[in-house]
Each structure stands twice: as structure tokens, then as C-alpha cells.
Sequence to fold (682 residues):
Amino acid sequence: MKYSVSFLLMIFIYFVGNAQDKKPITHEDMWSLKRVGSPELSPDGKWVVFNVTEPSYDEKEQINDLWIVSSDGKSSPRKITSGKAGEGGYTWNPDGTKIAFSAKRDGDEESQIYILNIKEGGEAQKITKLSSGANSPKWSPDGNKIMFTSSIYPKCFEDSTNKKMVEEKKKIKYKARVYTTFPIRSWDKWNDEKQNHIYVQSASPDSAARNIFRDVQISQLSGFNAASANWNFDSQSIIFSASTEFNTSAYQEPSSNLYVVSIYGGDAKVLTNEMYSYSNPIISSDGKYLFCFGNKINNNKVYNMNHLIRFDFPEMKNKTILTQKLDRQTNNLTLQKDNIYLSVESQGKDIIYSLSLQDSVLKQFSNSAYGCFTNVRVSTTGTTTIVANYESGTMPPEIVKLYPDGSFIFLTKFNADKLSTLDLDNGETFWFTSSRGKKIRNLLIKPAGFNPQKKYPLFVVMHGGPAGSWKENWSYRWNYQLLAKPGYILLLTDYTGSTGYGEKFSQDIQYDPFKGPGLEINEAAVEAIKRYPFIDGSKQAAGGASYGGHLANWLQATTTHYKCLISHAGLVNSVSQWGTSDDIIGRERMNAGVPWSQSKIWREQNPFTYANQFRTPMLVTVGELDYRVPVNNSIENWHILQRQKIPSKLIVFPEENHWVLKAENSRFFYQELHSWLETYLK
Fold:
């Protein structure tokens, strides 16, 4: 059966049942849901391989295996690997008989590349033996070779040399990190000397891997940072994107240009040399065109929209921005004969678009009235087959097959039985025009057992970014259903700066990092209370993570509208955030200069400036390994709250980074969040 727009108003019809027989979601329910990975479609479009994670509160008991299912929807998925290795980077060979993947199996100190023969069966065969590991395999178009990545010490092109360097590092008796260039750390790791290099190897276990950067001069520069790469159509060379200015990111946005290098040796040839950020290069099967994503850099913008770009190849002439007229972020490029398919973020959804290479016509392909499509894949031979992940606010990702009219069928239903027992809310979207004249989208989530005759407290939740949005998708970090479970109405507002509403809407946050978005958050709460009589306007709370945590601290500084606040990984002092974060140039563009400049934004839109106005009880949480919003900002916030005798609680997770990802930590986080809300809203 195919599903269309009318179906999508009641998504997942096999979930339909008597709501009275369903129960509220628990953390255990959420955590136990199987996690279906991205689909990889065989070249002929007949089979889909994907991974499935079976979570456990004990990480050692977690299982991750590869599965396969036919794309006609007539068979059930079946497991093709068995173990706890955690297979990733899986990809089909050109004739659809083998799958390459990376995994760390028994005896592997690092991840290695394995090949599984789908046609003949049997156990997967390990083909790499690098001490530095091997990841992200990609088959050559002729099917004889595999490209992959490995992180090595500079100039250690032979594995023996790199292994020797590792051993020498272990012998050093002192412990110190020494830096002469920026950045020194990223997200949750201190940067070391290692660089990500590209290797090529014959698809057989008795062959040796060759580092194709051996003769590439730019790879020896201190600012070298390789990003994405792909095979050339002839299987004789590799197209890759890389920056040679990564060490200058303290004062500029590094460019990332395109290069080509022979797999047999020699220096790389420069394909582009612009103030641009290029990524994900793909060569058409006939070798006539190069497609990639790209955007201008160092243009003093805080938000640069990614566009799909085409060059005539190999001359690299006639640069054409194919999505110039589409005022939306584009992702997930897939090339198939005369068409390109990509995911486009728009108004809380991820939508599939198709672009004809014959007439450059861009049109919406998926027609979902609810939910998000990501990781679209298209067959490369035979009849066109299209698959993707589909998810919603009431369902984690599953794999679907799409038809030319945009309808689809589910190929997997791993969580159907569990979800059918839970009382989950799709959410309700409403728009209003702010006092600044902006149209603001909001998503309202109701708790399990909702009764429109009752009154419910309002919990305003603010998303991170600010380049992000509240989508109709599933989340484990701030799960809509679990947050609402105790009996709260959730208000999710896409304030100015959010993505999916055009470049100008996202860009308008520049020089107004908190005041404007904070005002829109408050106005959205007032609007929701006005529209929905079941909201108790006397009981309101607000919270968020990352930029949402920043906004919580701004609300702390500027209003007493809320009974309590929650700030996870939120800055309280813009200056100290600039001084300790792994990213600084973006903050200077947001605030119109360096902190010691004449720009008033650093002071006037800094929560710390108004610390004497803090009044609201606040829960502050943070991961100690968070280097994007370092723990010092949460501690500084805690000092302010305690110094002024404001009811507050600080929770530091020593093993977490920007997000709370470990099972037991996640459960504790939700427990503490709900306890805090109950204290002030019940």
C-alpha cells in the first residue's frame, strides 16, 4: 500500500488504536527503541542495506548490526552481520554483490575495513590492517579498489612510520599539550598533530594500502585539513575538498577548495581557488560534470546558505549555482542519470527535492504533510528506485521507498509494536506575527492523556544553533514526548535566526544575538496562552540547550515572566565564552567586532551585564567535556545565582560533551529536569 497526503494526517496507520489503552512514554521506552541507520541502495535498486542499533543502558550490551531488505516491500528485513562491533560506513560495490564497511571486531585495536559477499554469503573478510585504523570506505567505479580515511601523524605516510611515532609518543615522560596555532580543541577533544588522510587499496586482503597524500605538497602545511572526497569517474584519481588555512580560523573563516590527485602518485592539481567552502564533490558517470555543495566565506555573514553547484569537468568552467532560486539550505546530494535528489530544510520539515539536469528545473519530490525525509538514495542502474529515512515527532527514523508521485511505503517497521502502545502527540503548528513584523512558526505538543477541559502548565523550550529549528522529527536529547509526559504543554518556537525560513530570516540575528529572539520567545508564550484555553498562564517555565541555554540565561537577565528556568550548556558571559570556546570568529561577526572593540553589543546583549537582575530559580547543567560552550560559563552562572541567593542547582556530567548521550546520564538528566519543573509548576 502506498501512502499519500491524506494518509499522513494519521501517520503510521498501524499505530491507530484506542488512545485510552495507550500509556505515556517513559525514558526506558524511549531508550529501548531500535535506531535505524541511513539506507544504502544497491546499484540496481533491488536491495537496501542499513544498520540497526539495539540500545542498552549498559553500553557493553548494546548491539549494532547490518540488515538488508528488498525494496519492493514484499519481504521482511533480515540481519546479515552478528555481533557488537558497530558496523558503519557501509557501501555497495558497483555490481551489487558485495558490501564494504568499517568495524572494530575482535582483535582490532582500531576500526578496519571489512567486505561482505552478499551473493555468496559467509563471514565478512577484513582487508585493511593499518595501526591507525580505516574508516568511510568508498568503492571505485570499476569495483576493483576501495578508498578510505585514516588519521595519522604528519609525514608518516608509511604505516610502520606512523606506528613508530605512536610508540615514541608513549615513551615521553612529561604530559603537556603544546600549540602554536588555533584551534586547540573541538567539541569534546583536544586537537593533536594527526591529520585525516585518504588511502586507496585493492579490494583484497593481501594488498597494501597506499596514502595518496604522499606526494601532495599541501598535505604538509600546518593549516591542511582534508574534508570530503570521492572517486573520479575513471577510477584513476580522487577528487577531494581541503583547507590549507585551518590554522588561521582564529581570525578568518578558512576556505575549502577542490583538488584532484592520481591514485598512483604525484602532486594534487588545484580545481578551485576561491574564497569559498566547497564540499561533497561528485563526478557524473560520464565525467562531464562535477557537482558539489558550496557557499561564499568571509563575507561578514553569520549564516551562509549551502547551495548545489555544477562545474563543467575537468575544465572546471561554467560554474552554475543550481539552487540559486531556492532560498533554503540544501543537503544530502544523490546523483542518478538525469536527475539529482537532495534534502531541503523548510519550515520544520526535511523535504526531498529533485533537479533535472536536462532543464535545471527544481521541484519538490516528497509530498509529506508531516515528518521529515533524510538520507535519500537512488539506484544508479536499471529502473529508478528511491529510498530514504522517514521520521516524525512520534516515530524514530525508519526506511521508506518513494514513488514518482511522492507517496511512499515503509520497508522497515522496527518500532511499530512499541510505539503502538504509547500515547504520543503529533503536535500542532501555529503562526503569529511578532511585534517586529516577523512571521513566527511554533509547534505545540500536548502531554499523554490530554484533556482539553483541563489546565496545563506551559514549558517553553528553545532550540540550539541559533542555526537550527524545531522539526517534525524524533530526538533523544530533548524528546518532545518525554518532556511533556508529566503534564506540560510544550511550546517550541522558531525565532529569528532559525533555519528553514530563508537566508534573510537566519541572517537577521546578526548584531541582535539575544534581545530580538528573546522577545519573540516571550511573545510566542503570550500568543499560545491567548489561543489555547487549556494553558495555565500562571504556570510557565522556559529552558533549552546550547543557544537555547544562552536564551534561558538571557531570559533570566531580562524578565521574571517564568516560574523557573533550565539552562544546559548555556553561556552567561559572552566575553568568557569568546575566550574559551573552540569557535571565536563567528561570535565576533555576531557582535560586530572583538570583545575589546567599541561594539556595544558585547555589553548590551550579554546576560552577565544584568546579573544584578537575576531572580528566577534555575537548573544549570553541563558536560565537563564540552568545548563548544565550556564548563566555565556554567560555573560562572552558578556563582552568580549562589551569590544572590537564588534557588538553583548545578549538575556537571564529567563524561559528557555538548550533549548528554550516555544512557544512565540521560535518564538522570530527564529525572532532574522533571523534578525541577514539578517544584515550581505544580
Residues 428-681 form a domain with the Rossmann fold fold (CATH 3.40.50.1820). The longest strand covers residues 535-545.
